[in-house]
Amino acid sequence: MSMIEFHNVEKYYGKFHALTDINLTIEKGETVVLIGPSGSGKSTLIRTINGLESINSGQLVVNGFDLASKKTNMNKIRREVGMVFQHFNLYNNKSVLENIMLAPRVVLGRKDDENKKVAMELLDLVGLADKAESMPSMLSGGQKQRIAIARSLAMHPKCILFDEPTSALDPEMIDDVLNVMKKIAKDSSMTMVVVTHEMGFAREVGDRVIFMDEGQILEDDQAKEFFDGQPSNERARQFLSKIIKH
Ligand SMILES: Nc1ncnc2c1ncn2[C@@H]1O[C@H](COP(=O)(O)OP(=O)(O)OP(=O)(O)O)[C@@H](O)[C@H]1O
């Protein structure tokens, strides 16, 4: 069974056609990078995977569950599919440790000893074990984003969605976050779907690269083919040459 399957998916915001005939299969354990110009529908697509955006027609199956079916428990999907946002979305009135321990306690009923142990291991993984008792307001953007990643991992998701995780960061912090993401991609069996403009990351870590424009998938290639060969789609080639020149 694949992790994610889109079949002829359409999405509208009012009259605006945001996703057109999306067909896409992502296998378990794959790291897939979604690229494309601003407004091409990347965020919309990634947000449909955990039900943050609904679809208008077609079929979307995540870990065997049809998201359009009334029988599907969306809370279960959100437990299994974590998300990391551009703007971190940490609870600012809770310590770093509390941010990481909250959902496992409330949603999974994980006991405090075990919960703290998992949280500390994850803080270690993201290189911030010394910040456990800090409040988010004391952290830099890059540190906040690494905490947001640890918080998401604490739920032991099967899949994790990253929606432009480095776009709001100062340049010197971007690599710290990308390095954590690389580590996760290499060392875990999790499925990762990443919207990013970081082509170095896409090339090094992505198994596949999906190029979107105007709500459509125009190119779906192995990362190596995409960067070392040439995308067959003209707009994908233009996008790539522009982005690599800059
Ligand atoms: N809630 C909404 N209501 C109406 N239109 C929306 C909504 N969300 C997104 N859109 C529109 O849908 C289109 C696709 O937006 P989306 O955010 O998915 O693109 P994107 O490729 O992620 O862009 P960016 O790289 O700038 O984040 C855009 O034209 C946007 O204005």
From TrEMBL:
SUPFAM superfamilies: P-loop containing nucleoside triphosphate hydrolases. GO terms for molecular function: ABC-type amino acid transporter activity; ATP binding; ATP hydrolysis activity. SMART domains: AAA. Residues 4-239 form the ABC transporter domain. Signal peptide: none annotated. Keywords: ATP-binding, Nucleotide-binding, Transport. It holds the Pfam family ABC_tran. CDD domains: ABC_HisP_GlnQ. The keyword Chaperone does not apply. Belongs to the ABC transporter superfamily. PANTHER family: AMINO ACID IMPORT ATP-BINDING PROTEIN, PHOSPHONATES IMPORT ATP-BINDING PROTEIN PHNC. This is Amino acid ABC transporter ATP-binding protein. It comes from Pediococcus pentosaceus CGMCC 7049.
